[in-house]
Each structure stands twice: as C-alpha cells, then as structure tokens.
Design a protein that fits this description.
2 domains, aminotransferase, histidinol-phosphate transaminase activity, single chain, Histidinol-phosphate aminotransferase, binds pyridoxal-5'-phosphate, 7-stranded mixed beta sheet, alpha/beta
Length: 353
C-alpha cells in the first residue's frame, strides 16, 4: 500500500546541486554569485530585525512591487513576488495548467520544469534543441498546444540567448510563454522586459530571481513580471505570506542598489570571457555564454573523470548528463566565480589533462 498520490509515488523528484556544509570548497556548481550582496541589503535586514517581526509581512509586497515596477517601467500591478523564482514557477503551473494538459520546455534546459509538471499531473514535452542550441524547425508546431512553454533565456546549462523573434514565434496558441530570465542581468545587452510590451505581451510572463545577479541565493526571492490580467490570477493561487518580512526588505534594498549589481555583473562578464578563452585554449569546446556559467565539452568525452578529479581537489563544478533521441549528451557546467577561483579551476584542469 502506498499512502502517496500515484504521481508522487512514481516521480523521482528534483535533485539540486551539492551544497557542502563544511568550508574549504571552491564552489562553482550552482551559479551563485561569488561577490557579496549590497551593504544596503544588510542595513535593511538589520533595521527590519529591530522592527516588528511579530506581525505578518505585507501580503501585497507594496514597496517591493513599486521598486521592481520602476525597473521594468510598468505599473506595480504587473509584479508578483515569490519565495525564489522557483516558487513563481510553481505558482505559474498551478495557475495555468490542469491535470493532463501539455507543458513544454526546450531540452536540454532547466530540469525543474519537468518535476513541476509531474507534480501537477501535466503531460511534459521536451523540445530537443539542435546540437548548436538553436530551436529545431518543428519547435513552433510542437509548442503550439502547450498551456505553458517554459523557456530559460539565456538557457541553462548552455548559456546561449535566443532572439526575440525566435521567442515570439513560439508563443502557444492558447497558452503562456514563460521566459525564465534568471540570468537576464548577465547578458551583454541585458533584458528589460521589452517583449512584455509587444502586442503578444498578454501571453507572456517574465520571471526573475535575486539569487544570481543580486547575490541573494540564501534569501530566496524571485518575482514575475506580466500583464495585470495574468498577475491577478496568479495572486489568487499564491500563499498570502509567501515572502517574509526579512526577504522583502532585502530584495527591495537590493533592487534599489542597481550600481552594486551592475558592478558585480560587469566583473563576472569579464571573468567569463577569460574562462571561455582559456577553456578553448585547453582543448574544450565552450559555448559563448550570456550567463554566469560556462558549458564546456571535450572531444575525448572524459567529463565525468574531470569532474571527479576536480572534486578530489575540493573544486565543485556541475557534471550534467542528458539523454537525447540519438544518445547521451554530457559535459561540465562551471560557474563564473572570482578571478582567483577561475584561475584555480583552470590550473587544475590543465594538471588533470
Ligand atoms: C537559478 C535558477 C532559477 C531559480 O532561482 P531561485 O530564485 O533561486 O529559485 C530559476 N531558473 C533557472 C533557469 C535558474 O538557473
């Protein structure tokens, strides 16, 4: 006898990257930001701690939504906050998808979409990308009947960014295109929600996270930007107090300090160029990333050995494996850390061979 729902009984569950609890690791496996958050975040949290933790947080996140709305040049009713953008993805699934309906995503990409679809009892379709990470010719037709098409842009684990025209052509006929812009701030030409203002904007949702570019993975904060008609439905689904008083204060302060975020993302972009160049020098193929990580493969296919060898040296990168129609694709995803960390991993890769 199983006490579980059959769907839960059968599913494997999502496996997040390793988070070693002891120090001494060079941690380049979960795309955290190597630089600290803005000092204004710490001030805001400190102030909040001295305030009123005995009362519930603002369920409407009024102040946060005002600041986020300014950033995207929309009204505050276009913004919905979440306990990490992963929670926003859950809210989207529960708002727009019924049991048995179709959810799609490119493949390889972020594997959480499939887990969320499984929990909801939806059908999940992987749209397999071309070897150069472009969309297959059939993508538009495959995506058409989806209730949600999730697209990380730039993509993970590859780091490439697709064109606006590509994305607009993929909007499902009776569904929503969710642009997961977790890495939007790391692009050479950052996103600013432009597609939301096109005439297809009423079927688009952009999601953002404070975990990567704002160095706040430990705070758990993300948000959605979408037309108020879509946001109002999502608001019915979300828990009233899904964001707590401290995370709201931290996220609001972080968004207000754009200079801090811009400075850090600029440093990461510079380190990224160096990492890509040096990986190629070492004989790897590395994607021209628009994110804070680099996907690389080697023609000798010894990715797992290198991952293990790095781990022995207390350097954690992400070893990833994807089953494709024509076999398996695997490779290493390396987070762009500080210059020192990246030099360390490059030296180790050289030594390992
Ligand atoms: C990191 C990441 C997220 C999750 O962000 P959180 O706000 O930390 O939940 C969502 N989507 C993609 C593609 C990511 O890489």
């Amino acid at each position: 006898m199983s006490l579980f729902r059959p769907l839960v009984q059968q599913m494997a569950g999502y496996t997040p990257g390793e988070q070693p609890q002891e120090s001494g690791w060079v941690k380049l496996n979960t795309n955290e930001n190597a630089y600290p958050p803005s000092p204004r975040v710490l001030e805001a949290v400190q102030q909040t701690l001295e305030g009123r933790l005995n009362i519930y947080p603002d369920p409407l996140a009024t102040e946060f939504r005002k600041v986020a709305a300014e950033l995207f040049q929309v009204d505050p009713d276009w913004i919905l906050p979440g306990n990490g953008s992963d929670e926003v993805l859950t809210i989207l699934m529960r708002t727009f998808v019924d049991q048995g309906q179709l959810v799609s995503a490119p493949y390889p990409s972020y594997t959480l979409y499939e887990t969320l679809a499984e929990i909801q009892g939806a059908r999940f379709q992987k749209i397999q990308l071309n070897p150069d990470w472009s969309w297959p010719a059939s993508a538009q037709q495959l995506a058409a009947d989806s209730k949600i098409l999730f697209v990380p842009n730039p993509n993970a684990p590859s780091g490439n960014r697709w064109s606006d025209a590509d994305l607009l052509s993929l909007i499902p006929s009776q569904g929503v295109l969710v642009l997961d812009e977790a890495y939007g701030d790391f692009c050479d030409q950052p996103h600013q929600g432009e597609l939301l203002k096109t005439d297809r904007g009423n079927q688009l949702v952009v999601t953002r996270t404070l975990s990567k570019s704002y160095s706040l993975a430990g705070i758990r904060f993300g948000f959605a930007v979408a037309h108020p008609d879509l946001i109002s439905g999502m608001r019915k689904v979300k828990d009233s107090y899904n964001c707590n008083t401290l995370s709201l204060a931290a996220a609001t302060a972080a968004l207000k300090d754009q200079d801090w975020m811009q400075e850090n993302t600029a440093k990461i972009r510079a380190t990224r160029s160096y990492l890509i160049e040096q990986l190629r020098h070492l004989g790897f193929e590395a994607v021209d990333s628009q994110t804070n990580f680099v996907w690389c493969t080697h023609s000798d296919r010894e990715h797992e050995r290198r991952y293990q060898e790095l781990k022995r040296r207390k350097i954690l990168v992400r070893y990833m494996q994807f089953s494709l129609e024509e076999g398996t694709l695997d490779g290493l995803r390396i987070t762009v850390g500080t210059d020192a960390e990246i030099q360390h991993v490059l030296d180790a890769l050289q030594e390992i061979g």
